[in-house]
Amino acid sequence: MRAAYDVDQVRAAEEPLLRSLPDGTLMQRAATALARRCASLLGKVYGNLMVDLQVTCEKLRDRGERILVETLGLPRPRAAALLEEAAGHVKTALVMERRGVGREQAHALLDQADGVIARVVGDLGVSAPAAESGGAPRPKKGKS
């Protein structure tokens, strides 16, 4: 038979931890975990990066370029040019580069995948083949 803790033992063990945390900490952590999962299911994130980003200011342009550099392994000038070609939309730029397609085709692919980028280009560790350019999949840099 497997040993198990009863409710009183679990409550007694967690009591010191709960007393040491500020009020609302556990609820905040639960809400954050739920929000992250929802964002993932909706295709707003790619790996741990929020990629459903439309460039509307210099700060977001910088962030978008850094996302493209990190996820695609591009030099910064190429990332900037790609973001411009994608009309400032990071998710579109990712699809354009990883699949070797233009902006309109990237939009169509994202629409077919309900906006979930991983369905179009795979995950961060595995590149989808470049569709029209005939290029080989790009190796991933960084964390998997």
Mean pLDDT: 84
List the secondary-structure elements in sequence, H or E: HHEEHHHHH
Instruction: Label the CATH architecture of the largest domain.
Output: Orthogonal Bundle
Q: Major beta sheet, specifics?
A: 2 strands, antiparallel
Strand content: under 5%
Q: Helicity range of the residues?
A: 55-70%
Q: So how many helices?
A: 7
- CATH class assignment of the largest domain: Mainly Alpha
CATH topology of the largest domain, anyone?
Helicase, Ruva Protein, domain 3
Report low-confidence residues grouped into runs of 5 or more: 126-144
Supply the number of structural domains: 2
Numbering strands along the chain, what is their spatial order in the largest sheet? 1-2
N→C terminal distance: 39 Å
**Total E-strand runs:** 2
Rg (C-alpha, Å): 21 Å
Shape: elongated
Structural class: mainly alpha
